[in-house]
Amino acid sequence: SHEKICRYIARESELVVVSVGYRLAPEHKYPAAYEDCLNATIHFMKNIEHYGVDPARIIICGDSAGGNLAAAVSQTLAGRSDLPRLRAQILIYPGLQVLDFNLPSYQQNRGVPLLFRERAAFFALQYLNGDALHMQEVLEGSHIPPDMRLKYGKWVSPD
After folding, report:
1. How many other CB atoms are found less than 10 A from the CB of residue 52?
2. pTM of the model
3. Per DSSP, what are the bridge partners of residue 137?
4. Environment class of residue 6 by beta-carbon count within 10 Å: exposed (0-12), middle (13-18) or buried (19+)?
5. What does the pLDDT look like over 101-139, one tens digit per residue?
6. Which pLDDT score is estimated for 148?
7. Contact call for residues 20 and 37 (beta carbons, < 8 A)
């Protein structure tokens, strides 16, 4: 689905672009997509000399759910001394925070097409467990135990 943009980026930047065709939810639940992206990235990095790529110029990129995957893969690879270091990550409207759908950004943009607040929650549930059975609880924020909300609150606080 991203072939044209990948070709454009490769042509205009004169860089090698590797696009990973990962397994999709709901047929393939988490962590299938993450594992596909991680394994493809590790394979590429371990075999970089076969692609004629400068190991100091590796950038990982993704948009939407792919932005989430790019961030997760980047974090996983950050401490790996057996692989080249990533030069950068580019995250284009990434889906990074699905703990609280009542934060200001979700409230302010709740009716903005294309990804309405309800649709964002639906896709997050599809990605995590393959169904949207608990959609109302997620939108209300009642799916998070109080002790977990307290522990991680500083990461998702609107303050």
Report:
1. 7
2. 0.83
3. none
4. middle
5. 888 888 888 787 777 888 888 988 888 876 788 899 989
6. 85
7. yes
State CA 113 to chain mean position distance: 20
Rg of the Cα atoms in the chain: 18
Give dist(CA 44, CA 97) in Å, integer: 28
Residue 125 contacts residue 138 (beta carbons within 8 Å): yes
37 sits in which H/E element: helix 32-46
What DSSP designation does 114 have? S
Counting every residue written for the chain, the total comes to 159
Strand partners, 90: 61
Number of CB atoms found within 10 A of residue 102's CB: 13
CA distance linking residue 38 with residue 76, whole number of Å: 8
